[in-house]
Structure formats: C-alpha cells, structure tokens
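2024-03-11 09:14:02 INFO receiving multi-entity request
2024-03-11 09:14:02 INFO entity count = two
2024-03-11 09:14:03 INFO echoing inputs for audit
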Amino acid sequence: MPKYVVGAILVVLVIFSSIFVTIVGGSTYMATIPQSELGKHHEEIWAHTGWNIHDPFMTGADAPTPASRGKTVFIREGCWWCHTLLPEQTQDWTYFGDPPEAGDVQGESPSLFGSDRKAPDLLHIGSRNRVKAWHYVHHRNPRAVTPGSIMPAFEYLSDEDMDALVAFLESLK
Amino acid sequence: MGFWTKDDYAEGTAAKHFFFSAIVMLVIGTLLAIITSFRLAWPDILPNDIPWLHFGRVRPVHVHFVIFGWIFMAFAGAMCYITPALCKTKLWSERLGVWNCWAWNVGMVVVFFTLINGLTTGREYQDLIWPVDVYVLLFILLPLAVNVWMTMLNRRTEGLYVTLWFFGASALFIILTYFIGAIPDFFPVTGLSEAYMTWWHAHNVLGLWITPVSAAIAYYIIPKISGNTLYSHKIGHLHFWSIAAFYSTPGAHHLMGAPIPEWLKSFASVSGVLIMIPALAFVVNMLMTMKDKWWMFTKNISLQWALTGVLFAIPLNIQGAFQQTRTLNWYIHGTHWIVAHAHLALLGFSTFIEIGAIYYGLPKLLKRRLYSMKLARIHFWMTAIGFLGFWISLTGGGLVQGAAKVYEVPYIESVIATHPYMVGRAVFGLLIIFAQPIFLYNMVMTARKGERVEDDAPAMQAAPATA
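2024-03-11 09:21:47 INFO inference complete, emitting structure
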C-alpha cells in the first residue's frame, strides 16, 4: 500500500474519532448527569412544552400550565434573542444570580441559554423582582418604568399571553 | 434517472436561476435588517402593535434570508457553474438544479411565514420546526449534493482540483451537520445535550459548509481571473484536511459559560485555536497566487470583491481563534463584539467572495458584458465602507458591554452607553442595505441590455476597467 494511502486513512480516522468522541461521547455523558431538585421543578414547566416531534405547531394555548404557556410565548416573541437564561460562571452571578448546575437543565427543551445578551439575564428574575404589576407595565411600555430601555413595547400581546408570560417569569426562581 | 438527464435544459440554466434567486434573497434579507438595526437604536421608531415589525420576530427571518437564502443559494449557483467547468463536462442535471432552486425559493417562503409568526424551535440556527427541517434536508440540501456528486462522477478529467474536494466533501458535511442539529427536534434530547447539539450544528454550518465552500469559490476564481496557477496544491491539501479535523469539533465553545463538562470545553477551545492552520493556509495560498498580478486588484471588479473577502479572513480568523478561549471568552461572550464577528464572517469574508464570483460568473452565463462597471464600483464601495463602519460600531459597543459586565454596573447603564454604537451600526448598515438593490438592478440590466459577447470571449476581462 502506498504511504499516502496509510496517511489518508489515519487522517480520516482521527477526524471521525474526534467527531465521535465529542458528539456521541459528549451527549451521552451529559445525558447521564442526574437531574437536580431545581431541575425537577423546572421540568414541570419546561420539559417538552416547546415545539417537538409530538406537536410542531403547538401554541401557547395548548400548554398545560400558565408558566409553560408563558414559555411558549417567550419563545414565540423571540425574548430569548436578547434575554439569556444563563448567568455566566465567570463573573456575573452577583447581579444575575447563581449559574445553573449541570443537573438543573436536564429535561428542559429547549434550554434557551441564549447567545447574544442585549438585556438582563432572566434565570432568577422570579426572585429578583417579585412585583407582578411591574412586569405588566414593563411589557406594555418598558420605557415607562425603565428609561433608556430598548426592549420592544409588546402592545399586541393578548391578556392571556401576558398573564402566561408573567407566570413564566415568576417561575424563574 | 432518465427524467433528470434526458432533454435537459440549456447549460447554465440552473446556475442562472440560483444566482438571481440568491441576489433577490440578499436584497430581502438586508432590507429586513433595517427593522432589526433601527429597533435596537430607536425602539419606538416603528408601530408597536404589529408583531411582524418586532425585533424578536424579524431577527431570525433576517438571519435565515441572508444565510439560507443568499449565501446558500449563491453557493448552489457557484457549484452548478464551477463543478462542470472543472470536470470538463456538463452539469449532471440542469433540470434537477432548476427544480432544486424553485424548491429552495418555496422553502424560503415557508421559512418566512413560520418564523415571522413565531413558529420556531427556540434553538438558534436550528430555528425551523421539524417539518421544515425534513423539507430542507430532502428538497434543498440532498438534490444539490446529488447534482454535484453525479457531475463529479461523470467528469472527463483525471484528477480533482482543490475546489472540487471542498464542494464534494462540504455537500456531505452540510447534510450530516443539518441532520445532527435537527436530532433534538426528532428525538427527546433535552438539556445540556440538546444545547450542545444545537451549537455543534450552528458552528459546523460555518465550519464545514460556509467557510470551506467560500474558500473553494476563491480557489477557482482567483487563479482563473488572475491567470496565475494556484500557488500550492500542498497547502490546499493542508487546508482541506485541517479544516475537516479542527473545524468539526469546536461547537462547545459557544457554551463556555454553561455547565457542560470541562473536558468538552477544552476540546472545543483547543481545536478552535487550531483553526488558525486552515485559515492561514487558505489566506497565504490565495495571496501568493496573486503574485505579480496585484495590479488587477483595483482593475477587475470580481477580484476586488473576492480578494477583499480573503483579506477580511485574516482579522476574522484571528478573532475566531482566540475569542473562544477561556481567557477572552468571559469578557466578550454574548456582547455585540460577537455580532460584529459573525458579520465579519458572513458579510465580510463569505459574501464578498460570492459577490466576486457572481460578477465573474453571471455575465459569462448570460453571454453578455456587465451592464455598468460604474454601478458595480458604487456597489463595492457602499458595501465596503458600510461594512467597516458597521463592524467598528458593533465591536466598540461590544467592548463597552464587556466592561459593563466586569464592573457589574446596573444593566440598563450598558444599554444607554451602547446607544451611540447602535446608531452608528444602523446608519452604516443603511449603506450596505441600499447597495444591494443596485447589485440586483445591475444584474437584471446585464441580462436584458448587456452587450452580447461571443461564446468563448471572457466577458469580465473584456469589460473596460473604468472609474
């Protein structure tokens, strides 16, 4: 066998084994992390309440609890394009609260960590701000309660959607 | 099989369809960005009672139109044009290509209406609900791959040029990547595993599809137009294999702040830095290919676009290699810096190369001269100046956000402090947005009024290099 064939086979093996280790190994390893108490609490709200194989056209009205209905509104309106649900481990827990433990997010779908934070992290908003009326005013007209905010004013949300959304935010302890 | 190959359409039909569709998607995609960028600068500038005009609804539509619409279809056009040229044969099936193109456009309509109405999986870059995922795999990605592979199998040449390695491999990679990314839509994968698959997909769409195919296009047009042979096929080999080895695993670097295992973060981070190898191999190969022909940089419009794209790859890859290490990631993660970086990759590097390819290929396919070199120059300078201003504004804004994160000032202070940067981004963004309809007009006029040229005359080189 010519030398370059041996080399090529080696290179391909290295590539596929690294993909295999990271994807299959990583995912399997993470799937075995046991669910924490907080994760169990979240599961009631979060697990499979989004869009999945069972119901791709699910709307907020179909979700079982007010908080999970609120999560579908949170996804539908794209809140997660600015609000992360992931206080970073490195530096910002004093303001946004503890970063999640590995077990806390087991069972969630989608996890909604977010990537592009242009607004405060909301993982612990339910503990940080307990004033229900504030949330209602803030969603209709953010600049009335937070001058300088660039959050969209959700004038079109129905009362049911708004109740659900606030219930979801309150569930994020 | 006979249906696809017998009584086929004229050569180049598929590529023409793809190129024009791609340009239309570019115009729509950038126009949508007016809504997103203005909303971030002045949140009440548009009516608040219409959901379709809200940032959260429009952002994913903009992303999908510029990536899945513009970049992907420009790739498909380039593949349908370059693959037969390098294989010295005709495209396996122009008919399949044309059907593929229309399926793609129908898919973009579906993407528009699902995302704008908030039907999404809530997973970034895998936003489409599973029925649309199935459609994308079966009617968009698979037919393109089949066409490219069948053309390569029916080639009349002995070896395969660098471009073809990338086309053939990336067509497989994108199908695998898209499928793995969509697994959480089909199976009950949750929590960290789901987040990891989401980001593995998100990064590998770039690493195994957008970056290598953009590079493959540059590997074709830069030697072709400059008249030089490729500087080094060995460096091409290095580029090809190292991109497959190092760019297939760094997905976890998007989750450096998440509770995923540390070994996975380290694996991603190290392979992320190693991406410098394919990146620099590519840049060096392209710039050395231009040896003694640099005067063409300002004379030939296609080279001007493509080489500017190659030059953008230098800051792009230096940023990309180091911003995902723990040392830097904690500072800039989730800030506008990242948005600037993403635009440097997709608008700076990739789009500039594809526009170069279209200025070269489309007039050739139409057998006409470019309608107006002056408009092409205006298009270039508006996009280039707009992009630079846009990129500097966003990068600056990102550094402000990073500082605000470290000093833990109340969050709203960082929003107020980044307002001028958002204004800068919106204003410079307008230059980019208004440049693209000029591109479309120029190409439509080339098709309708461009001066006809004989079959073998090189359309672009013959055009007078004015302005």
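2024-03-11 09:21:48 INFO post-check: The mean pLDDT of chain B is 92.
2024-03-11 09:21:48 INFO post-check: Residues 153 and 316 of chain B are 35 Å apart (CA to CA).
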